[in-house]
Specification:
- The protein is mainly beta.
- The protein has three domains: 71 residues, Immunoglobulin-like (Sandwich); 118 residues, Beta Complex (Ferric Hydroxamate Uptake Protein, Chain A, domain 1), CATH 2.170.130.10; 54 residues, no CATH class.
- The strands form five sheets. It has a five-stranded mixed sheet. A four-stranded antiparallel sheet has the order 3-2-4-5, with no helix packed on it.
- The mean pLDDT is 84.
- This is TonB-dependent receptor plug domain-containing protein.
- It comes from marine metagenome.
Length: 289
């Protein structure tokens, strides 16, 4: 099987006999083999991605080796229109920091965070490669980095360690942190000399927003549909206002996050009872020498 214009062999061409399970694929030299073909009239079909398929009827009158070459013509495949959009402005600085980092770091800007309707900061972190989350009541709350448990990871805010929220280990619940108050997220997946040696998995650093010069306001509203309860009364409202005073020396940023969400779930339990069994009997134990 060759290219009709260049005569170059086509590797991996699908060659098969219609109506049967007999067929094969061409090798590096474009040669194919279809063994154990009986007598009769057959139709061979040849197909290759990007080329026009061909069908040829052949008649096998005696048991011998038949040779049939095919030259396929290139064809343009037209698909649906795909619109590609890019976010260069908000993510450009984050990408540059990521490229210049001395270790394996993923950085997400605030513009990228606010593009998706995540429930909290934990679910925003989960969109980073190599990071997953644990869920409670359908909402993400703890971060898993490189498959290691949340107790082996560290959460920081502007470089300051965030206290553990679990009485049994060092894990931190992130379900109460709003992603709309973050200016960026930095996830370090490997230890470096400038970090504390108390992490096996990785470190998640939340960068808080800062008030920009001038009066700024932002309002985010979300409506939700609960498919489990068939309700439409779930909603989320986020309002933040910021400004700077005294020649931009002092900045004030306030945010109100109001949310109403029904996190009902279906529970399935089972039990059994073995009525005739009696477990109150005592078997004596005797030791003899």
């Amino acid at each position: 099987v060759r290219d009709g214009s260049t005569k170059d062999p086509l590797i991996g061409t699908n060659v098969f006999i219609l109506g049967t399970s007999l067929g094969g694929a061409s090798n590096n030299d474009g040669i194919y083999t279809i063994p154990n073909v009986g007598l009769g009239t057959f139709t061979i079909k040849v197909s290759y991605i990007g080329y026009q398929s061909k069908e040829l009827e052949i008649v096998i009158e005696s048991l011998k080796i038949y040779t049939q070459d095919f030259d396929l013509d290139y064809v343009t495949i037209e698909g649906k229109v795909v619109e590609v959009t890019a976010q260069a402005k908000g993510q450009m600085d984050a990408i540059n920091k990521q490229l210049k980092a001395k270790s394996i770091v993923n950085i997400v800007s605030s513009d990228r965070i606010q593009e998706l309707p995540d429930a909290n900061a934990a679910e925003s972190v989960a969109r980073i490669p190599g990071v997953s989350i644990r869920r409670e009541g359908g909402e993400g709350n703890k971060v898993v980095i490189r498959g290691l448990s949340p107790k082996y990871n560290k959460i920081t805010v502007n470089g300051t360690n965030l206290a553990s929220t679990d009485p049994d280990d060092r894990s931190t619940d992130l379900s109460m942190i709003s992603q709309y108050m973050l200016d960026g997220i930095e996830v370090t997946k490997a230890g470096t000399p400038d970090q504390e040696a108390d992490v096996l998995g990785g470190t998640v650093n939340f960068i808080l927003k800062k008030a920009q010069p001038g009066l700024h306001g932002n309002l985010v509203s979300q409506g939700m549909y609960n498919g489990l309860k068939k309700t439409q009364d779930d909603y989320k409202l986020v309002l933040d206002i910021s400004n700077r005073f005294l020649n931009d020396r002092i900045g004030v940023l306030g945010q109100i996050d109001f949310e109403n969400r029904n996190r009902s779930s279906h529970d399935l339990g089972a039990f059994y009872q073995n009525a005739p069994a009696d477990l109150d009997s005592i078997n004596p134990l005797q030791l003899t020498n």
